[in-house]
Each structure stands twice: as structure tokens, then as C-alpha cells.
Amino acid sequence: MSVGWTQVALAGVWGGLVAVERKAFLQAMFSRPLVSATVMGLLLNDVPSGLFVGMLLELFHLGTANLGASLPDNDTLSATGTSAAAATMAAATGAGSTPALWSLAVLLFVGLGRVGQRVDRGLERYSARLARKAMASAEAGQLTRAMQQNLWGMWPHFVLFGAMTASCALAGFFIGPLLERMPLPLLRGLAWAYPAMASVAASLAAKGSHARRAPVYAGVGAAVVTGVVVLLTTLRGCS
Fold first, then answer.
1. Rounded to whole angstroms, what are the CA distances from 124 to 24, 162, 163?
2. Three-class SS of residue 214?
3. What is the rounded CA–CA span in Å between residue 197 and residue 192?
4. CA distances from 232 to 99, 140, 188, 235 (A)
5. CB-based burial of residue 125 (10 Å sphere; 0-12 exposed, 13-18 middle, 19+ buried)?
């Protein structure tokens, strides 16, 4: 088994960049799961894995918000880590991306959202201290120093989240060969787990929207997602 270190490095850089974008710079929605995971797939030459993982996690985390002292799960780390692992798992197997692979990646790495939440809490305290120092420097007329302190506050986000995303990509290269050894019934179960998880995610998204007809939207969304995945699985099996 050969590890694609270029892919690991690309995953780490993109994971770090969107972590910074999410908290401290631009905040132009590049850090949303659908966008960050799809771009991750593009960088790692596996757009399907990035797109389908991102779509599921976008639905799952839709409606979460940073309200006051309440920090939600870090949906960005969940998306970048899971999509990076899925892409490198597919590269390690050489068989391309499949619903079974997406399901396994989600089941193994979706918990990164909670890990990222804890890291966010620690970094919030660090950033608050730097912000107070930057404010004091600005009030003292040291504008250059204040700017440097603000910029320094972004680096921990880039380094920590980039390292965690790169670790997920590296783990994918080791998990991929294990996927090939799984019995066929288990792989089929994992393949059907993806539309099932997408259905649950669609229901959660509709409930979080507080729409008047949320159950209807959830049912339609779940049916569409399930239908698309079934169609793609059938076409893949016929080819």
C-alpha cells in the first residue's frame, strides 16, 4: 500500500483554510459542509465522494447556528475530515467511490463534529485573550502590533484543524484495503445505509427549518435522495 502524501498535504491545507474562513476570515460560506467537502473531493480527484458526503452532512448539520456562548458541532471539520477519508479510501482500493465507501466514511468520521466543538471552545478562550491584547495595542496607537496579534489568532485554527483533516486523509489510505476484505453482504448493507442516513438527515433538516409542512418536505427530500442513490447504484452495477 502506498500513501499519497500530496493528497494528505492538500487535505490538510484545505481543512486549515476553511477552518480559518469559518471563524475569522471572509465567512463566505465556503466552510459549509456541501462546499468544503465537494472542493475536498475536487482537490483529491474524487468529486463524487466529496459531493455525496457533503450533501449528507449539509442536511445533517443544516439549521445549526453559533448563538452566544452555545457552540454547535464543528460541521466544517466533520465534512472535510470525512470527505478526505472517503477520497483516500477510494484511492487506496482503486475501485472508485461507492455508496458503501461513503457510508463507512460517515460512520467512522462524523464524530469529528463533536471533537471540533471542543477544540473551538479552547480556541475561543485563546482568541479572546489575543483580542483584548490587540484592543489594548490599538488604543495605545500600536496599530501594526494590533494587526499582527489579530492575524496570529488565526494560525491555531489553521494548524490544528489542518492537522486533523490531514490525519483523516492519512487514515483513509490504511482503511481502504480493509474495505476490500469485507464480506459482500456487509458491503451491500453499507451501500443501502447511505440512502437511509440521507433520509434521516433530510428529516432533521426539514425539522430544523420549522417549516409548516416540514414532514412533507422531509419525505420528499428523503425520497429524492434515496431514488438518486438507488439509480446510481443500479447503473454502476450494470456497467
1. 11, 17, 18
2. helix
3. 9
4. 9, 62, 14, 5
5. exposed
Q: How crowded is residue 102: how many other Cβ atoms within 10 Å of its Cβ?
A: 30
pLDDT digits (tens, 9 = 90+) for 194-230: 888 877 777 666 665 555 555 565 566 556 666 666 6
- The tens digit of pLDDT for each residue in 53-110 reads 998 998 888 755 444 445 678 899 999 999 999 999 999 887 778 888 999 999 999 8
What letter represents residue 62's amino acid? L
Secondary structure (3-state) at 70: strand
Gyration radius (Cα) of the chain, Å: 20
70 backbone dihedrals φ, ψ, rounded to 5°: -85, 115
CB within 8 A of 101, min separation 6: which ones?
Answer: 49, 86, 89, 90, 93, 179, 190
Read off the pTM.
0.76
Phi-psi region of 103 (alpha: psi -120 to 50; beta: other; left: phi over 0): alpha
Query: Which backbone phi and psi does 88 adopt, to 5 degrees?
Result: -75, -30
184: cell is 459482500
User: Running DSSP on this structure, what letter comes out for residue 67?
Assistant: B
